[in-house]
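Q: Structure tokens for this one, please.
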Amino acid sequence: MTALLRGRGLSSRRAIVVVILLVLALMAQAPVCARAQTAQKYPQTIVFMTDFGVLDDSVAICRGVMYGIMPDVRIVDLTHQVTPFSILDGARFLYGATPYFPSGTVFVVVIDPGVGSTRKAIVAKSKRGQYFVLPDNGLLTLVEQRDGIEGVREITNPEWMIGTKLSSTFHGRDIFSPVGAHMARGDDWTKVGPEMAVKDLVRLELKAATSDDRGLSATVIATDGPFGNLVTNVDGDDFLKLGYHRGQEVPVKVGDKELKMKFVKTFSDVPVNQPLLYIDSRGHLGLAVNQNSFAATYGVKPPAALFIPRAK
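A: Here is the predicted structure, written as tokens:
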């Protein structure tokens, strides 16, 4: 290369400088090429969640629709075991999972007790740049409270759906799955249908935990999977403001049960079959029994009232 440049009338020193600059330019382009190759290697992701269960072909059919539109799409199954018809559980799982997925991820959620009714099917974009394809029934409530919603469109464009005659009971197949695949493929989401006002979204009426001079009043909102731990709407920091420390016994009234249980770091900090209070992996106060079900042991089902007095 140096000899070629000298042949073009450049001195040895200038030729060396030119070669160095060319090498640096090629090195600067290398990360761009690497990013392009990575983008090709890892296709867009759809995170799929339903209350369909796994006993029949419903989930596989929806996945087949997505693959038919975008064969190389990557589908992550968040869960298909959401409590049937529980919009609150769906909202909780979305709230818990979305922080771990990047901007541009498409979430397809079918928990739809109002399927076939006047409820709207929508696509929403959060201020984190994630997209949500789902029924407008409150599923976005918790995500909106934390991340904000940038825009919403109602799904009305038949070209983004499948079938000549839409089923009135399987919009997961006919509407939400194909729209999710179009979104993941990079199609212009403004073509899905007319814009909606964010203020018009349906929201769950969730009663927030409150504190006063007596203590903290809150709600048990769910059980934690198959283990029977109680999930509450109490932020861990708010509980700590009551003045309790790990290792202390805490008086608790949950439903019609009055108990004393230790506030600990993890389950094994108390003997087997003993109750405990802990901060769960999502940063909320939880009630559990070591190696047993709190819900079954004490007969507590959500929603249930919870009261914890201030420490003395």
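A few notes: Residues 32-42 have pLDDT under 50 and may be disordered. The chain has three domains: 2-39, 45-200, 210-309.
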